[in-house]
Specification:
The complex is a heterodimer of chains A (257) and B (405). Helix content of chain A is 33%, strand content 25%. Chain A has 257 residues and is an alpha/beta fold. Chain A has a single domain (6-252), classed as Rossmann fold (3-Layer(aba) Sandwich). Chain A is globular, with a radius of gyration of 18 Å. By secondary structure, chain B is an alpha+beta fold. Chain B has two domains: 3-52 and 271-403, no CATH class; 60-230, no CATH class. Chain B is 55% helix and 18% strand. Chain B has 13 helices and twelve strands. Chain B is elongated, with a radius of gyration of 33 Å. The relative contact order of chain B is 0.19. The chains are: A alpha/beta (257), B alpha+beta (405). The A-B interface holds A 53, 56, 58-59, 78-79, 82-83, 85-87, 91, 93, 95, 97, 99-102, 106, 110-111, 113-116, 118, 160, 164 and B 1-2, 5, 8-9, 12, 16-17, 311-312, 314-325, 398-399, 402.
């Protein structure tokens, strides 16, 4: 088996809130091999968000170790973590978090601006264009977020997450603001990227049926992993879309007002 | 990340909210243009005074007789009879004296044909045109022999010429009457305009000082001596030598005050220059306050902007922006705001200064220095007022920033 993309050992995270100590993570050990599609689930307060923040290098564990792509990132400085996020992690958020009044292509280009290497503008534009094409938005390069539907905005966000060819795609409730059909489409895109391109996906969700699109489901409760299972009867988003009655065509079209 | 990239990011961010950017700049524009205009007005006034002094001759020294005192009655400056033509002759031999003219004045009614004009009759010497750098328009100045013989010759100022003969008439050789005595006009001086003290220098008739003493007033003393020092740098030293000489000649004891007064034109002018300098500083100060208010406006907007863009900051950090990148972005945004505002403000200030000169004919002078100072101040205001909001932005925790609603 290939070395794990994500390997954690006994992760502990303690917050101090006022005079209380809140133990968000109480010893999490997990390995995620490359090319896996892992869903992390659990009720709110279970520690899955804290886990995501540490995996996403937005936060450091109080103790324990975390290797990302074989590199120990658990003791890195803030600036080092920023570089790791830029090179190895692609974020997709529930609220899309696109820059307002900024075209789709400019939004996708953003991580490249912080990449340090002084790429030529034309190279960056080309890369951003390519990514928008990969998520099916080649025709919407110059649209502003407010001219795009929710699903399209999330596609722009996914293109942005992919533009730096990260080791993992970290999606935090990516379907939380979308309707059912658009959710299936977005999950279809993740499945496509995972299967066709071999991109490792970590999906944080509290919806059990969304978790069923993944190949493995890890459940959190009270700061520890309570179950870690391979998905049997995995849902196939492409198949489901084909079976859907074609009555809501407009969902895939831009919202023209 | 390169500075150029930061600049691009900052400009893109500013372009996303054009209305707010424009309004924020307005504060800077008004502040900078106010500073430029006010300083231009002040330095304009100053340089017009300086050019007047230059026209009068910077190395001019005025010696006047002291006040006349008899019993308890004290008459004004120049009325004492202590200054004599011999004093003038002695001063002429001093080192550093280039030109010298003794002076004695009287007011008189001047008549030419059927026209008359009340004016100042100024008795002077042949050096006066050189001391004052004052050329003749018609004829020539009177000669040393005219002075020696107390001839009845007159050189007219431009105003007197106009009043008695009219513009364009060459009066050389004409006879005018001063206190009923006939004088031959030998020349007319070019127009010199107002003096630095506001007197009309052209409303005058110039005659040999000996003529005023003997023919018009019947006195043996003179009222003033106008001296031109050989070099401008030597002016005050020459003035001191004149003082010492006169004290000796007038037998003044060391503990007694002078019975004469020696002033350089620079001394007289410096008072006025100081007054305008104070005025300029005051105006610039008031304008500076508006620049400060403009700067606070920038800080205010940047602070609002940091709060409003918390999620954006969080996102930038998530995709790899370091604290330093965010700090730089917000500082550069503030600096770009104030620099562009400052640039427009300079252009506007230049325009207003030109307009004031064109429509109100007030002298204005925009120096490269004042433009540079205003621009540098604007940019520094941007940095100063940008740092606090930028530090606030850079200090955000990406997790909290992303969650911010």
């Amino acid at each position: 088996m290939a070395p794990a993309v994500i390997a954690t050992k006994n992760l502990l995270k303690t917050y101090v809130v006022g005079e209380h100590q809140v133990k968000a993570l109480r010893g999490v050990t997990i390995d995620v091999p490359p090319g896996e599609f892992v869903a992390v689930t659990g009720p709110s307060g279970s520690g899955k968000s804290t886990f995501m923040h540490i995996v996403g290098c937005l936060d450091r564990p109080t103790s324990g170790r975390y290797w990302l792509d074989g590199q120990d990132v658990s003791q890195m400085s803030k600036n080092q973590l920023a570089e790791v996020r830029n090179r190895k992690i692609g974020f997709v958020f529930q609220g899309f978090n696109l820059l307002t009044r900024t075209s789709a292509i400019d939004n996708v280009e953003l991580p490249l601006l912080y990449a340090g290497s002084s790429q030529k503008t034309s190279v960056r534009r080309g890369r951003a264009k390519e990514m928008l094409g990969a998520v099916g938005l080649a025709e919407r390069l110059d649209h502003f977020p407010n001219q795009l539907s929710g699903g399209q905005q999330q596609r722009v966000a996914i293109a942005r997450a992919l533009v730096n060819t990260p080791s993992i795609l970290l999606a935090d409730e990516p379907t939380g603001n979308l309707d059912t059909k658009t959710s299936i489409e977005i999950m279809g895109l993740f499945q496509h990227l995972n299967i066709e391109r071999g991109i490792t996906v970590v999906l944080i969700t509290h919806e059990p049926d969304i978790a069923e699109y993944a190949s493995r489901v890890v459940s959190f409760r009270d700061g520890v992993i309570v179950s870690d299972r391979a998905v049997t009867g995995r849902r196939d988003a492409a198949e489901e879309l084909r079976k859907l009655p074609p009555d809501r065509e407009e969902a895939t079209e831009p919202c023209q007002s | 990340m390169s500075v150029l990239m930061v600049l691009r990011i900052a400009i893109k961010a500013l372009a996303r909210n054009k209305m707010r950017t424009a309004l924020t700049m307005l504060g800077m524009i008004i502040g900078v243009s106010a500073v430029i205009t006010m300083v231009a007005l002040g330095t304009g006034a100053q340089s017009s005074i300086e050019s007047q002094i230059q026209a009068a001759g910077t190395n001019m020294i005025m010696v006047s007789a002291g006040n006349f005192q008899q019993g308890g009655v004290r008459l004004g400056q120049g009325n004492a009879s202590s200054l004599t033509p011999e004093d003038a002759a002695a001063i002429r031999d001093l080192a550093g004296v280039q030109y010298l003219a003794a002076g004695v004045n009287t007011r008189a009614q001047v008549v030419a044909g059927n026209l008359n004009w009340g004016t100042q009759v100024q008795g002077t010497d042949v050096d006066l045109p050189f001391i004052r750098s004052w050329p003749e328009a018609y004829g020539a100045f009177f000669t040393p022999s005219d002075v020696a013989t107390a001839s009845k010759v007159a050189v007219l100022g431009a105003v007197v010429h106009e009043q008695l003969f009219g513009v364009g008439f060459d009066p050389v050789g004409e006879i005018i009457r001063i206190n009923n005595q006939p004088f031959t006009v030998v020349g007319v001086m070019a127009s010199k305009g107002q003096s630095g003290m506001g007197q009309d220098q052209d409303d005058v008739v110039l005659v040999p000082y000996t003529t005023v003493m003997k023919k018009l007033r019947g006195i043996t003393f003179i009222q003033s001596i106008t001296v031109s020092a050989a070099s401008a740098t030597d002016t005050s030293a020459t003035a001191d030598r004149i003082s010492n000489l006169l004290r000796v000649r007038h037998k003044i004891q060391p503990d007694e005050p002078d019975d004469f007064m020696v002033r350089t034109l620079e001394e007289m002018a410096s008072v006025r220059v100081q007054a305008t300098e104070t005025m300029t500083a005051l105006l610039a100060g008031i304008a500076g306050v508006s620049l400060l208010v403009g700067g606070i406006g920038i800080m205010n907007i940047m602070l609002v902007s940091v709060t409003e863009r918390t999620r954006e900051i969080g996102l930038r950090m998530a995709v790899g922006a370091k604290g330093r990148d965010v700090l730089l972005q917000f500082i550069v945004e503030a600096v770009v705001l104030s620099a562009i505002g400052g640039g427009i403000g300079i252009a506007l200030g230049l325009g207003v200064a030109r307009g004031v000169t064109a429509w109100m004919s007030w002298p204005t002078s925009v120096t490269a220095g004042s433009v540079a100072v205003a621009f540098a101040f604007a940019a520094m205001t941007g940095v100063f007022f940008g740092i606090y909001p930028a530090r606030k932005a850079a200090g955000l925790d990406p997790i909290d920033a992303l969650r911010f609603e």
